């Protein structure tokens, strides 16, 4: 009976042979599993590959930095100042034989004296990236080729340059204000020389502005461990992590901290141009904080997010304004994977 099955179905025979071929054993031994070291460990299970953090932290034993870390309390400074938060998003809209069409939206949200003030939407703005566009962008040759070949690089280029343009204008015209940035203050290879992060920081210093870059998460596990003492502090506080960041990452601007902006709120990374304690105190005194995150940054994110209506309108605009011919197209992933495509 078995012989007949293997003769009629070669796949059945192949499935029985995996063990004989040593494939399972080979996969198991491609790295040392070390599963015995898992015993007795504290553990947090991932959810759809998202970054998960323990509510009460990992505990002081898990971190060699904790013992030498000083926790500094943040006290709100009731001195009125304008807070301006910037965020953006970019999407690929279409492509031609020679290039691709992208769109960007920027959001600016402001607060003053502890209350939301007003918000602005910039865009959607369209950019067609082709060889001629990249030639005029002052990008290094290898990076320019990657931008043309990789949509993620292209969207990153547009997003970085658009955000830097907005940040430069705000830093050059505001005085005694706080400029909030979504993400770390790290120079990017995509920056325009005239609107680099370094020049924006210089403008902030000259006009007595403070700039704070707030990251919602970090890929550096050592920062999570270093921030463990913040979970035990009842109110807003920060821990300096300059030595860790500067030792691991190049081209960062300003000082580096791990901060908690509210009781029982998530711990965030904050890069700061200006006096650290003053900047965080002024932020708490002028920007409403809900769930441990500045309201201006949350609003700027929502303003800059593309909706299905945005995409439909942009498509109609391109068809009606640029004398293009739309070609029928198929989703390759759906064609290959069918209903199981995700």
TrEMBL record:
Q: Cite the SMART domains for this sequence.
A: NurA (SM00933)
Concerning InterPro entries, the annotation shows: NurA_domain
Name used for this protein in its record:
Putative NurA domain-containing protein
Upper classification of the source organism reads: Archaea, Nitrososphaerota, Nitrososphaeria, Nitrososphaerales, Nitrososphaeraceae
- Highest taxon of source: Archaea
Q: Which residues form the NurA domain?
A: 81-306
Q: Which species is listed as the source? A: Nitrososphaera gargensis (strain Ga9.2)
């Amino acid at each position: 009976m078995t012989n007949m099955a293997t003769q009629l179905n070669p796949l059945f025979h192949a499935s029985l042979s995996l063990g004989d071929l040593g494939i399972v054993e080979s996969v198991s031994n491609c790295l040392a599993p070390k599963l015995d070291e898992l015993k007795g460990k504290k553990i947090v299970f991932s959810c759809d590959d998202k970054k998960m953090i323990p509510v009460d932290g990992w505990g002081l034993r898990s971190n060699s930095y904790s013992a030498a870390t000083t926790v500094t309390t943040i006290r709100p400074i009731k001195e009125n100042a304008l807070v301006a938060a910037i965020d953006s998003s970019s999407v690929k809209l279409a492509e031609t034989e020679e290039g691709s069409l992208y769109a960007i939206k920027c959001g600016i949200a402001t607060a003053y004296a502890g209350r939301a003030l007003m918000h602005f939407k910039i865009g959607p703005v369209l950019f067609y990236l082709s060889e001629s566009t990249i030639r005029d962008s002052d990008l290094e040759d290898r990076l320019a080729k990657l931008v043309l070949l990789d949509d993620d690089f292209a969207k990153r280029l547009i997003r970085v340059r658009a955000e830097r343009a907005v940040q430069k204008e705000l830093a050059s015209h505001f005085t005694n204000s706080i400029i909030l940035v979504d993400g770390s203050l790290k120079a990017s290879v995509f920056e325009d020389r005239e609107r680099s992060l370094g020049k924006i920081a210089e403008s902030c210093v000259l006009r007595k502005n403070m700039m704070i870059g707030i990251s919602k998460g970090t890929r550096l596990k050592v920062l999570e461990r270093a921030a463990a003492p913040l979970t035990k502090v009842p109110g807003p506080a920060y821990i300096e992590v300059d030595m860790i960041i500067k030792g691991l990452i190049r081209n960062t601007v300003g000082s580096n901290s791990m901060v908690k902006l509210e009781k029982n709120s998530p711990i965030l990374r904050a890069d700061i141009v200006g006096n650290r304690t003053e900047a965080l105190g002024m932020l708490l005194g002028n920007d409403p904080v809900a769930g441990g995150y500045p309201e201006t940054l949350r609003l700027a994110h929502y303003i800059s997010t593309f909706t299905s209506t945005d995409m439909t309108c942009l498509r109609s605009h391109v068809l009606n304004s640029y004398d293009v011919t739309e070609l029928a197209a198929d989703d390759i992933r759906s064609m290959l994977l069918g209903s199981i495509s995700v």
